[in-house]
Design goal:
Layout (H helix, E strand, L loop, with lengths): L16 E6 L2 H9 L8 E5 L2 E5 L1 H5 L8 H7 L4 E4 L4 H15 L7 E4 L3 E5 L1 H10 L8 E4 L8 E4 L7 E4 L8 H26 L4 E6 L2 H8 L7 E5 L3 H9 L11 H11 L17 H5 L6 H8 L8 H9 L16 E11 L2 H23 E8 L5 E8 L1 E12 L12 E8 L11 H20 L8 E13 L13 H12 L3 E4 H6 L2 H6 L6 E3 H4 L12 E3 L6 E3 L3 H10 L3
Parallel strand pairs: 2-4, 9-11, 10-11
Antiparallel strand pairs: 1-6, 1-10, 2-3, 5-6, 7-8, 12-17, 12-19, 13-14, 15-16, 15-17, 16-18, 20-21
Helix pairs in contact: 5-6, 11-12, 13-14
Bound molecules: 2'-deoxycytidine-5'-triphosphate and magnesium ion (2 copies).
2'-deoxycytidine-5'-triphosphate (DCP) binds next to strand 1, helix 1 and strand 3.
Length: 576
């Protein structure tokens, strides 16, 4: 007997979301600094892998995240440039983000990683669709400002700009489909205009245009590099078949843990704890159409202690291309600043101590960059003069230390996902402008981080540290609207902060960060040398590509854990 199929989740398509992804981002940054590299195959190196490579190299068979020696075998004249220092990438990312932000009316813009931006352009597009004159569509004008009707650009509204996926609604289709089509059309012209603005800064990009984040992000990859795709899907079935064709692991928000649990369920096998790959062996469609699949079943499979609330419903929605998550209004204050590095099993306390000092120095440097501003104060008498004063824009209230043991792929042991974290109140002395930075770093390590480390790792030796992450979070805006720290008494926020602070000694599953457990956002998962929330933690369903480096048993390369399986497959394809 067949059970009735569960109801698919309801779709909202009242928004228009653009998703920008810069082409081979780190490589473009390097090329802009050294234009001679543009015509050569270029790889950006981090430890022993390529963080990315330019499209000249890709045409020669080099891929992102390939091991350096493999890439060199395929393309012996590959030019390698070190990409360990993220500061230039971060600066360019901020510059382009601010450029896009300057076009937003509603301020709803989010960065995802360093090279992606979501822009909710619902309001600008609705305004411009209203302005369309059906008798002169080919001579339309896109207004970029409500206040200045001359600010904008001319466009031909008889056709979509760039590529499309799907087809326009038939002429006799319901009115609302036609209105959606017009909004996508206007948005496609805005997307092209914005991509050209980004190109004026030296950066080409891909853009996806649709009604929610998951669809815009996925459709943007259909035509890349240097192109854009509007998703013309007016029937649920069109959206489902688009989603169904994706490898399960490629759906943003479905990380390794979720993907291996679902895969095991579908294949009626036990989940493989070592499974960490960019690809799953099943498609999203196979999961969605599996006979017993539904939101409650997903909740049963994926829920439990530590899992995100409502994870079953969330994944069920994602599989149907439904994603109602909003694009939050931009803030200049990051929600957390997190610095981390990975190691191949630190066991020497002097070295751990040294690393904690290096991480703390970076953390304080980032706090000064992101959270301190210079105010110019004018005094009228006796002599008119101005003095500069520094002030904190926000005080993080919590400091958190996270560690994870080092994992060796050839150890024969299952992959160890466990991170342990400990949080406590960030002492006020770090906000002192009177003390030298080095003094603050030493005090922070001696009085806070070393005791936290000992609390987390009570053994007296053999710590085998694979990762250290130091993070400050729970930003409290200084001198908010209501005056004073925190801008008034937000009791709810106070409890949330308290809950955060009390969440000590929790053991997390690494993948939870990928799959979107909120507290993992606060924990700052990911293994970049430096990483901060503003740069990389934009959304719970963000893929965290930057996992710990592991040693390939065949060639000895250090490569990210998640890429290990794909890397081994690569060896399998090598000529013997
Ligand atoms: N990156 C990284 N480590 C990863 C993944 C990405 O350091 N595991 C960095 C390098 C990339 C940048 O982030 O340049 C953006 O990642 P993308 O996946 O968008 O890759 P690219 O922009 O390089 O290439 P594409 O043209 O495919 O978008
Ligand atoms: Mg990119
Ligand atoms: Mg990207």
């Amino acid at each position: 007997m067949h059970l009735p199929r569960p109801k698919p989740p309801r779709r909202r398509d009242d928004r228009i979301i653009l998703h920008f992804d810069y082409d081979c981002f780190y490589a473009q940054v390097v090329e802009n600094r050294q234009p001679a590299l543009k015509s050569l195959p270029l790889g950006i190196k981090q430890k022993s892998i390529l963080a990315t490579c330019n499209y000249v190299a890709r045409r020669r068979g080099v891929t992102k995240l390939m091991g350096i020696s493999d890439a060199k075998k395929i393309c012996p004249d590959l030019v390698l440039v070190d990409g360990e220092d993220l500061s230039t990438f971060r600066d360019v990312s901020k510059k382009l983000y601010h450029l896009l932000r300057s076009y937003s009316w509603n301020g709803k813009i989010e960065r995802l990683g360093l090279d992606e931006v979501f822009l909710d352009v619902t309001d600008i597009v609705a305004y411009n669709v209203e302005l369309l004159n059906p008798h002169a569509l080919d001579q339309s004008f896109f207004c970029l400002s409500k206040l200045d009707p001359e600010l904008g650009f001319s466009y031909d509204a008889t056709a979509i700009a760039g590529c499309t996926h799907g087809s326009p609604p038939p002429a006799d289709q319901r009115d609302e489909d036609f209105s959606m089509y017009l909004r996508l059309l206007a948005a496609s012209h805005l997307a092209r205009y914005l991509r050209l603005k980004i190109e004026e800064e030296g950066y080409t990009s891909a853009c996806g245009i649709s009604s929610n984040k998951v669809l815009s992000k996925l459709v943007g990859t259909v035509n890349k590099p240097r192109d854009q795709t509007a998703f013309l899907a007016f029937r649920e079935e069109d959206i489902w078949s688009f989603m169904d064709a994706h490898n399960l692991r490629r759906i943003p928000g479905i990380g390794n843990r979720i993907s291996s649990v679902l895969e095991a369920h579908i294949l009626a096998a036990a989940p493989d704890p070592n499974f960490r790959s960019f690809e799953a062996t099943v498609s999203a469609g196979r999961v969605r159409t599996h006979p017993d699949m539904s939101a409650p079943v997903l909740e049963k499979l994926l829920g439990g202690p530590g899992a995100e609330k409502g994870i079953g419903e969330k994944v069920w929605c994602l599989l149907h291309g439904v994603d109602n998550s909003p694009i939050k209004a931009a803030s200049d204050i990051p929600t957390q600043i997190s610095i981390e590095d990975t190691y191949q099993g630190l066991n020497d306390m002097a070295e751990i101590d040294r690393q904690l000092r290096l991480l703390s120095a970076s953390l304080l440097r980032r706090m000064y960059i992101d959270l301190v501003e210079e105010v110019v104060e004018n005094s009228a008498s006796p002599q008119p003069s101005s003095t500069k004063r520094k002030r904190w824009l926000a005080h993080p209230k919590t400091i958190r230390l996270t560690t994870r043991p080092y994992f060796r792929a050839d150890s024969g042991k299952p992959y160890n996902y466990a991170r342990v974290s400990r949080s406590q109140q960030l002492p006020n002395f770090v906000f002192s402008f009177a003390s030298a930075r080095e003094v603050l770093v030493d005090k922070l390590v001696d009085e806070v981080l070393l005791p936290m480390f000992r609390g987390l790792n009570p053994a007296t030796k053999d710590w085998n540290v694979g990762l250290l992450n130091v993070c400050v979070a729970n930003m409290v805006v200084v001198g908010g609207e209501n005056g004073g720290i925190g801008g008034g008494r937000d009791i709810g926020a106070m409890f949330r902060r308290q809950e955060d602070v009390l969440r000590e000694f929790r053991v997390y599953d690494d993948d939870d960060g990928v799959d979107g457990v909120d507290e993992m956002r606060v924990d700052g998962t990911g293994d970049d040398a430096e990483r901060d929330e503003e740069d990389s933690d934009a959304e719970p369903w963000e893929e965290d590509d930057r996992d710990g480096l592991e040693c390939c048993a065949r060639c000895g390369h250090l490569i990210p854990g998640f890429a290990l399986i794909a890397h081994e497959r690569y060896h399998d394809l090598e000529p013997v």
